[in-house]
TrEMBL record:
Domain N-acetyltransferase: 11-148
Molecular-function GO term, any one: acyltransferase activity, transferring groups other than amino-acyl groups
Organism of provenance: Solitalea agri
InterPro entries: Acetyltransferase_Butenolide, Acyl_CoA_acyltransferase, GNAT_dom
Domain of life: Bacteria
Protein name in the entry: GNAT family N-acetyltransferase
Length: 148
């Protein structure tokens, strides 16, 4: 797997999992991410272990993340994309998406998928569209899997 570390105006994007701050990632995902509120820390850890992760940092402080789940041949799922609120509006999400979409191990895929409730405009800038034929898609969804 090609490991990337890219610097821009005091910020860094890295795919080095050793740099990830699991506590801060868990804090955000379990308390602020509408898609996985209350997710247990061990689930976050397992998800990270089994994904290509893009950490976003200011110095050593983790300020964002995106995970890609892929076979690196035909398909990729983009998930857990976030930038901490106090760092939004600095083009970091666009830079993060550019970095992900240009990663050498994610080229030539037949399909990318993601779920978003509020960031359609960001993803459309990178060629993402609504599902062309939703009648072909199915899901098994457990909305309350992390409820106590």
């Amino acid at each position: 797997m090609t490991e990337l570390t890219i610097y821009n105006n005091g910020f860094t994007i890295s795919t080095d999992k050793q740099k990830l701050d699991i506590d801060s990632i868990h804090e955000f995902l379990s308390t602020k991410a509408y898609w996985c509120l209350n997710i247990p820390k061990d689930r976050v850890q397992l998800a990270i272990e089994n994904s290509l992760c893009f950490g976003v940092y200011e110095g050593n402080k983790q300020i964002g993340l995106a995970r890609v789940i892929s076979d690196f041949s035909t398909i990729a799922y983009l998930g857990d994309v976030y930038i901490l609120e106090e760092y939004r509006g600095k083009r970091l999400s666009k830079w993060l998406m550019e970095t992900i979409m240009n990663h050498p191990n994610l080229q030539g895929l037949r399909r990318w998928i993601l779920l978003t409730g509020d960031a359609h405009g960001l993803y459309r800038q990178f060629g993402w569209t609504d599902i062309a034929d939703p009648s072909k898609w199915m899901e098994l969804y457990n909305k309350n899997v992390y409820s106590k």
